[in-house]
Amino acid sequence: MSEAAPRTAVPDTAALEVTGLCRTFGAVRAVDEVSFTLPAGGSLGIVGESGSGKTTTARIVVGLERADAGRVLVKGRARAGGARGRAERLARAREVQMVFQDPYLSLDPRTSVEAALRETLRLHFPGADHQARIKELLDQVGLGTRAAEALPRQLSGGQRQRVAIARALAVQPAVLVLDEAVAALDVSVQAQVLNLLADIRERTGIGYLFITHDLGVVRCVTDEVVVMRHGRIVEAGPTATVLDDPQHAYTRLLLESVPRPGWDPDRIAAARRAL
Amino acid sequence: MNALDVRELRLRLPGTARPVLDGVDLTVAPGETVALVGESGSGKSLTSRAALGLLPPGAVPTGEVLVDGRDVLTMDAARLRELRTGRAAMVFQDPRAAVNPLRRIGDFLTESVRLTGTMSAADADRRAVELLDAVGLGPELMRRYPGQLSGGMLQRVMIAAALMGDPVLLLADEPTTALDVTSQAEVIALLDRLRERFGTGLLFVTHDLGLAAAISDRVYVMYAGRIVESGPAEALFEGPRHPYTAALLSSTPRLDGPTGRLAAIDGQPPDLRQELTGCAFAARCRYATDLCREEAPALRPAPGRPGQPAACHHPLEGSPADV
Fold first, then answer.
1. Of A151, A208, B192, B285, which has the highest C-beta tally within 10 A?
2. Helix-strand-coil split of chain A, %, nearest 5
3. Could you give all domains of chain A from N- to C-terminal order, each with its CATH number?
4. Secondary structure (3-state) at B33
5. A213 to chain B nearest CA, in Å?
6. Nearest by CB to B182, which of A49, A214, A220?
7. DSSP codes joined into one string, A176-192
8. Among B209, B185, B146, B298, CA closest to A266
9. Residue of chain B whose alpha carbon sits nearest to that of A199
10. Best interface-test mutation with B: which of A54, A156, A180, A187 has the largest number of B CBs within 10 A?
11. Which of A69, A191, A47 is nearest to B257 (CA)?
12. Distance between CA atoms of A113 and B208, rounded to whole angstroms?
């Protein structure tokens, strides 16, 4: 810890601290010197379009992708490098959990909701009785006992995403990475899930890393935001400041691109080409 | 004559307790942009696909779907083919799923007019290059494969392909959902330019009320197979009359809305296996009364606002447009 990163009075208890992350695929610098800090119980948005590197960054944080350089600290402990052995792998998984865009792809179609939660709990906390915890988790995400017996295909999209969230919460992670987790949901269901996520953060103090392209969602659920483009962070700061007074031309373009009455797509298209 | 005229369209599917489309009325005038807004299962995509005669297997339709004055529901296979390669065309959400990855872009663009014999190969090529130019792409793309193009470029190719047969009606089903926000603007700007230039009627199917308000002249809002409200985009956005439209607006995370918790709509849309009595939204509506649960409301205009009918027993009033 001799070479401290240039950071301002962030206590070591930050839920997540990412410093100088780099990842190259062939000739493409997918992630280029990315650094940010997620305070304990905070919510940080990473905004960008396809190819911005936001998903690769998230995957490195979770451990699904390797970084060429840089480091990831969760609650002050280093996360870089491959985990050795089963116990270490499980311990790593308990630090950071991820919820993907499409719960259809991340839930086993033949496993009921209750069995899926039980499997996760048994893997991480063997020997304990999980019945009460399963009920608690289902309550927490607003699912009843009827949903507990259902298979994923018998549930609506919103319910499936609640299951994915419950399963991620089961191991009590410090950080929850949500990769476009509400993008596939209908507006009315999306609002329910966003409110649910806000409630959970209030109650548990879990930190969110929210990967999204939707600035409305960012405004709604994050305290801070980083804007990524071509693998680099082009702007970062408190969400309200960045959205109300964007400094970078790309952030302004993103904001102007959000459709609303009186929207001028021609001007946006011209601005995009100019950038 | 309207580009599209849907009258009392009802659609029943096997194994369901109520019609998936329940008396849909909708028009698109030539050169007009109309948005059809709804959540999944509302029937918005079924409605737009019906305009091409694309019905789900086993579907039993009643009513009329007139494209350029001719009823699609009574057409035989040959007529339908003619319709789909000529007067009506569709741009789908995912361009990659709508194109053969092994065929060159030029082949894809000219295929329909060559097969129907409406154009010679040389004329078709000329027209394809012309349309590629209209959507901002160069002639060299004719020789390229879909895999060599970005999503935004490919969606522009789809739009060019849709215009090959000089359609009077262009159906766009979430054409920008799979695109980045900044390329969305580009595709929308393009659609708008082409609509103006060719006088095509555009039916834009989307779940995004903000987008609908941004681009369309008129908006229809669908819920559980019925049109619950329609009207000029701005009026609907500023002063929704149906509680569902209002709830949809307030549950959308917006850049100019209030921060904090969203005003979510509790519950879920009604299941298709469940029969509906009364208003389909009653179970989730905070204004619902016994009347709402017993009797389905008809689309009625408000006094003084003839252009914004809503299907509601207790429509919201007090919009600035009233005073």
1. A208
2. 40, 25, 35
3. 16-244 (3.40.50.300), 250-275 (no CATH)
4. strand
5. 8
6. A49
7. EEEESTTTTS-HHHHHH
8. B185
9. B261
10. A187
11. A191
12. 31
Question: Is A191 in the B-facing interface, judged by CB distances under 8 Å?
Answer: yes
SS3 track for B225-275: CEEEEEEEHHHHHHCCCCHHHHHHHHHCCCCCCCCCCCCCCCCCCCCCCCC
Q: How far apart are CA A197 and CA A188, in angstroms?
A: 15
Farthest CA pair distance, chain A: 62
How far apart CA B150 and CA B138 sit, in angstroms, is 14
Of A66, A22, A64, A15, the residue nearest A44 (C-alpha) = A15
Q: How many CB pairs under 8 A join A and B?
A: 119
Closest CA to B102 of B66, B40, B166, B145: B145
* A7 band by pLDDT with thresholds 50, 70 and 90: very low
Residue B11 and residue B55 in contact, taking contact as beta carbons nearer than 8 Å: yes
Side-chain half-sphere exposure of B203, counting CA atoms within 13 A: 32
Q: Tell me the pairing of strands B21-28 and B169-173.
A: unpaired
Size of chain B in residues: 323
pTM: 0.87
Q: How many CA atoms lie within 13 A of B18 on its CB side?
A: 19
Q: Which residues of A touch B262 (CB under 8 A)?
A: 191, 194-195, 220
Burial pattern A197-226, b for ≥16 Cβ within 10 A else e, equals bbebbeeeebbbbbbbbbbbbbbbbbbbbb
Chain B contact for A214, CB < 8 A?
A: yes
Q: Where are the domains of chain B?
A: 4-221, 224-254+262-310
Q: What is the pLDDT of residues B234-285, one digit of tens each?
A: 889 889 999 999 999 999 888 887 788 888 888 888 888 888 899 999 999 9
User: What tokens does B206 get?
Assistant: 């989307």
Q: Give the mean pLDDT of chain B.
A: 90
